[in-house]
Design a protein that fits this description.
GO terms for molecular function: methylmalonate-semialdehyde dehydrogenase (acylating, NAD) activity. Its EC number is 1.2.1.27. This protein is α/β, with parallel strands linked by helices. It is about 40% helix and about 20% strand. It contains 17 helices and 22 strands. The protein has a seven-stranded mixed sheet with strand order 14-15-16-13-12-18-19, sandwiched between helices. Strands 9-8-7-10-11-21 form a six-stranded mixed sheet, sandwiched between helices. α10 links the parallel β10 (about 225-230) and β11 (about 250-255). About 50% of the residues are buried. Bound molecules: nicotinamide-adenine-dinucleotide. Nicotinamide-adenine-dinucleotide binds near residues 157, 163 and 389.
Length: about 500
């Protein structure tokens, strides 16, 4: 991109108290299109003071928003849902340009976000409390739910729309206000969403966007007005956010890294399994917390499965996703490409068999990694211990299902796991014995729909209440339990 072009690139503003405000920060970063390096926008690393101003605005807005009737809140969400449907394609274009995932996956992601808005719009049902009329003579107990106040949200780059939508629709539906920080690598999508929230009638200060990095995060973690933190991102940062947030007496949900194991048994439908595991491993360039990055395949089907899987991976088309809807786009940044190449080198050095080398034939422009397949991977190799977050898959031959489950359970990350089989007994064994929160049976990416919680286990999640489903209502509310005596004596005369 020429300097004349870059001069016209806009620096994104923050949305605070219902106004677009420029950051005063001098730390301004480029947001490149990962397919070609062209600059999509610039983003300021906003200051702690700017974050504190957003928190103060959210606190002010809470005073009125928390009293708005639940029906009015739901109506705004219904309107937002319609606007998101209307602009689905445009939102998909924004995601593709800043994240690199192909347009069809970007639009599917928008669909996932919309699903969350629909879930949140059913808030009148979800917020209902419960009561018992006769716990003692003339005594009744009623449980009421209330919003918790100003909530904070910290998002990753890999789902610029879906992840923020795990957070703000339910938070505001419950009557809270929010300060949300998108990833500095994909900051554009949420600024467009703000325009739609305004069109839907969301009052000023209810949802605030502060762009930036660690300074914004640290203000959210330390500012006493913020009552909760919803975080999605890598394991290391998630640990920090959980420790620091809870040390500051906030409720924290931190959804973190993953290494998801897929098990293929001898009785699996091989053609169907290849299609689905291919998408699980290489879809969105492997930059999914539900990516099927390890495949454990039973001996009897291993040769056939590996041959067909490799053949299919070789046939994957890759390119600039802003030009065409290629199956495989780039990874997010040059550093991620280089980091992936380093892992491939380490895998080879450690003795794994490199069946397909994703370093070969990658274009100069953009940050591409072709599908990469390793065989004969062992548990001491960094390609197994670490989340690579790229289109790299480890294949391991196993003698049976118990060996596969034991292999998967040895990992400290446990977001999801899939099983391909035709056997009910195997499915039951898998469900009862695997240590992972989200399971797929004959599916490659078992990301639960919004009405169920996103339930990673072990070090893939720090906290108690997960995102989405009924957990999200619990997370964004607290309760009053009222025990009351209403003496009936005067009516009994
Ligand atoms: P990341 O941890 O680098 O960034 C996440 C957020 O934390 C960003 O907003 C970033 O600005 C902030 N951050 C980064 N470093 C920080 C620091 N030192 N101090 C304070 N804040 C900091 O994650 P990412 O690369 O954007 O996203 C990919 C990761 O997210 C992967 O590990 C993936 O598995 C995970 N993820 C998990 C889920 C899940 O449901 N478990 C879903 C999506 C993504």
């Amino acid at each position: 991109m020429s300097s004349a072009d870059t001069a016209s690139v806009k620096t994104l503003k923050n949305w605070i108290g219902g106004e677009w405000v420029s950051s005063t920060s001098t730390d301004i970063q480029d947001v490149p299109n990962p397919s070609n390096g062209g600059i999509v926008s610039r983003v300021a690393m906003s200051t702690r003071d700017e974050t504190a101003a957003a928190i103060a605005n959210a606190a002010e807005a809470f005073k009125t928003w928390s009293k708005v009737s639940v029906i009015k809140r739901a109506k705004i969400l219904f309107k937002l849902e319609q606007l998101l449907e209307r602009d689905k394609d445009e939102l998909g274009d924004i995601i593709t340009a800043e994240n690199g995932k192909p347009h069809n996956e970007a639009v599917a992601e928008v669909g996932r976000g919309i699903e969350n808005v629909m879930h949140a719009a059913s808030i009148p049902n979800l917020l209902m409390g419960d009561s018992l009329p006769t716990v003692a003579t003339d005594v009744e107990v009623t449980n009421y739910r209330y919003p918790i106040g100003v909530t904070g949200a910290i998002c990753p780059f890999n789902f610029p729309m879906m992840v923020p939508f795990w957070m703000f629709p339910m938070a505001i539906a419950c009557g809270n206000t929010m300060v949300l920080k998108p990833s500095e690598k994909t900051p554009n999508l949420m600024n467009k969403v703000i325009d739609l929230t305004v069109e839907a009638g969301l009052p000023a200060g209810v949802l605030n966007i502060v762009q930036g990095g660690p300074d914004v995060v640290n203000e959210l973690l330390e500012n006493p007005t913020v009552k909760s933190i919803s975080f999605v991102g890598s394991e290391g940062v998630g640990r920090y956010v959980y420790e620091h947030g809870t040390a500051n007496f906030k409720r924290v949900q931190a959804l973190t890294g993953a290494k998801n194991h897929t098990i293929v048994l001898n009785d699996a439908d091989v053609a169907d399994t290849v299609t689905k595991t291919l998408s699980g491993a290489f879809g969105s360039s492997g930059e999914r917390c539900m990516a099927g990055s390890v495949i454990l395949v039973e001996d009897g089907v291993a040769d056939e499965f590996i041959a067909k899987f490799t053949e299919a991976a070789k046939g994957i088309d890759m390119g600039d996703t802003t030009e065409e809807n290629y199956y495989l786009g780039p990874v997010i940044r040059k550093q991620n490409q280089e980091r992936t190449f380093k892992y491939i080198e380490e895998g080879v050095k450690a003795g794994a068999e490199l069946v397909l080398d994703g370093r070969e034939g990658v274009p100069e422009d953009g940050y591409f990694v072709r599908p990469t397949i390793f065989e004969r991977v062992t548990q001491d190799m960094s390609i197994w211990t670490d989340e690579i977050f790229a289109p790299v898959v480890d294949i391991v031959r196993v003698k049976d299902l118990p060996e596969a489950v034991a292999f998967a359970n040895a990992h400290h990350l446990a977001n999801g796991s899939c099983l391909f089989t035709d056997s009910a007994a195997s499915i039951r064994y898998f469900r009862e014995n695997i240590d992972a929160g989200m399971l797929g049976v004959n599916l490659g990416v078992p990301a639960p729909v919004a009405y169920f919680s996103f339930s990673g286990w072990k070090d893939s999640f720090f906290g108690d209440l997960h995102a989405n489903g009924k957990d999200s209502v619990e997370f964004y509310t607290h309760r009053k339990v009222v025990t009351a005596q209403y003496k009936q004596g005067r009516f009994n005369k």
